[in-house]
Amino acid sequence: MSSTYLGMPAFPEAASSAVADSQLRHNLQKATGTIRRKRAEVVEELDDWSDLRAAGAAIKAHTLSHLDEYLERFETAVTKAGGTVHWARDAAEANRIVVDLVHATGETEAVKIKSMTTQEIELNDALANADISAWETDLAELIVQLDEDTPSHILVPAIHRNRAEIREIFRREMGVSGKPAPADLTDDPADLAEAARRHLREKFLRSRVAISGANFAVADTGSLVVVESEGNGRMCLTMPETLISVVGIEKLIPSWQDLEVFLQLLPRSSTGERMNPYTSTWTGVAAGDGPSAFHVVLLDNGRSSALADEVGSQALRCIRCSACLNVCPVYERTGGHAYGSVYPGPIGAVLTPQLRGTESDVDASLPYASTLCGACYDVCPVAIDIPELLVRLRTKTVEEPKRRGPRGLDVVMRGVGWILGDARRLARVQRLASWSGSWLGKAGRIGRLPWPASKWTNARDAPTPPTESFRSWWQRTRGGNS
């Protein structure tokens, strides 16, 4: 069983710990920088990238605005093709459905592919509590699972680990749940991949149940689509007898023609490739070809609430490419764990509070996990205006706590309002600030102030107040009224 995000601290505290980890910062900077450069190169090749981006945004916006119609169309098509559709309002209902489906097969284990949505609902823990072993087969997800860790990136869940760390995880943990790593395992990528391949092969050959996510769901035909780079998806989607796919309702697109747009946008934005090494599609069941039983669990889990927000609903356009993470200066220094969610980075900062609400300290802090530099919007392949959503959610988090009583920030802002509301009070405060500027800090910068002001100075550099305010200068030089 892996760790969960439950009980993690709010972003400021988690980020402070992450920034202090120099190895983590090195791993993140190297990985995100590499992906960022590759993406820029392949995007630059296309003269019509802006048109593709606009098309992707339009297709997603249209689908979301008619989501009820497309969901019904998708269910009809899946049923006609021999599959079964299940509807899950929340994580608990989705987990119960999957557990019951696995129990119905009589099996006690399953292999998994494309696990982000199942990570969201913490399916592995629900399966473990029902005595069902779930084996992650994506290389990065395998690393995270073996280390009893949590994902820290949408595309590369183990981005916070370097090769030497992965080697030690394999040597320490692989033998506990299957074929052990070779005693002479090195940190060469080829050797690590071979160790993972041998460890997973026996699970692929043995498992009769597979659990998947999906990148896209095509409403017209009831088809699901997975894009991946390792081939493990093909093993999961073709060898088991029962396939259970857990899919967020926002993954729908109307037709195969629409899919063509996203198969250009996604690989360039995520891995910096022109196309994915493996693109797997499946529609229902067919005798002698792949699984004999196919189930789709359509997951809401807060998505309907997000959809009801005219502005916030654009976050549901996300195709999970991770481009925004790779350009974010905040993510590059803190990593994904600081966000307390399976969805980290800029998109996580706007998606998670909409799915989970802003009642907890973790979720209320996420809209502030940004510099609002706008780089995330510039690279988003479906043109989600993440900075706009961040500002909107900040407003929401400020307004909601008033129902539970004032916070420290509210008290401070009321005090600031009282000062700024009277010219004489403001003048006195300015004179005091000018007088105190000489001992507030050195070299023109404010040092550490006593609590609670230390919460500000610990995280920011601010200049000391000038020795003379503009008001005093004006009176002295112009002799006028201020």
From TrEMBL:
One of its GO terms (molecular function) is 4 iron, 4 sulfur cluster binding. Pfam families: Fer4_8 (PF13183), LUD_dom (PF02589). GO terms for biological process: lactate metabolic process. Residues 315-384 form the 4Fe-4S ferredoxin-type domain. SUPFAM superfamilies: 4Fe-4S ferredoxins, NagB/RpiA/CoA transferase-like. Coiled coil: none annotated. Signal peptide: none annotated. InterPro entries: 4Fe4S_Fe-S-bd (IPR017896), 4Fe4S_Fe_S_CS (IPR017900), FTHF_cligase-like_sf (IPR024185), Helical_ferredxn (IPR009051), LUD_dom (IPR003741), LutB/LldF (IPR004452), NagB/RpiA_transferase-like (IPR037171). Residues 467-482 have a biased composition (Polar residues). PROSITE patterns: 4FE4S_FER_1. Residues 71-285 form the LUD domain. Residues 454-482 are annotated as: Disordered. Keywords: 4Fe-4S, Electron transport, Iron, Iron-sulfur, Metal-binding, Repeat, Transport. This is L-lactate dehydrogenase complex protein LldF.
